[in-house]
TrEMBL record:
UniProt key word Cell cycle: no
Residues in Flavodoxin-like domain copies: 38-170
Entries under PANTHER family matching the protein: EXPORTED PROTEIN-RELATED, FLAVODOXIN-LIKE DOMAIN-CONTAINING PROTEIN
Pfam families on file: Flavodoxin_4
Keyword terms, alphabetized: Signal
Range of residues in the leader sequence: 1-19
Record's keyword annotation contains Flavoprotein: no
Protein name: Flavodoxin-like domain-containing protein
Species the sequence originates in: Veillonella magna
Length: 170
């Protein structure tokens, strides 16, 4: 069974020192620490998601893995906007620079990504297509936390591999 929690944080609130990440459960937020071995997996274009990932790692003791594209994205925002919209409209799955980590030894996976126009970057879809999250507690985080619930309930619900994840959230 999948279990999902949302980490709704602003980058400025990452180092709160509460000893764990925040878990959203209905309308109540509680402190969450990983059970068993944990891995923080993230993609960051501007550095905001990286800051959050490092804060989660520092507070939980989790291992960390950065997803990177094989062909690095441009640093020019306007060019990136055009490229990202093209990838999204064409359903592209950009290649990752290195293979996804083996998740077998992990009980909890923190998954972080920037909000790109109400969605994840297509690179995250590439990653999710390449891993098996069966039996994992999945904690999703993003700098724009409000968007995370929309992504989970709409974007991820179409994935066979992720259907139970989105149903557990809803």
């Amino acid at each position: 069974m999948y279990y999902v929690a949302l980490v709704l944080m602003l980058v400025t609130g990452c180092g709160s020192g509460n000893g764990g990440a925040t878990e959203a459960t209905g309308t109540t937020a509680t402190t969450m620490t990983p059970q068993g071995k944990a891995l923080v997996v993230y993609y960051s274009w501007s550095g905001h998601t990286k800051e959050m990932a490092e804060a989660i790692q520092a507070n939980t003791g989790a291992d960390i893995y950065r997803i990177e594209p094989k062909e690095p994205y441009t640093n020019d925002y306007d060019t990136l906007v055009r490229l990202a919209k093209e990838e999204r409209s064409e359903g592209k799955r950009p290649a990752m620079a290195k293979a996804a980590p083996d998740l077998q030894g992990y009980d909890t996976v923190y998954l972080g990504f920037p909000n790109w126009w109400g969605d994840m970057s297509m690179l995250l879809y590439t990653f999710l297509d390449s891993v098996d999250l069966s039996g994992k507690k999945v904690v999703v985080f993003a700098p724009a936390g409000v968007v995370v619930s929309r992504i989970l309930s709409i974007q991820l619900s179409g994935w066979n591999r992720m259907q139970r994840l989105s149903k557990a959230f809803m």
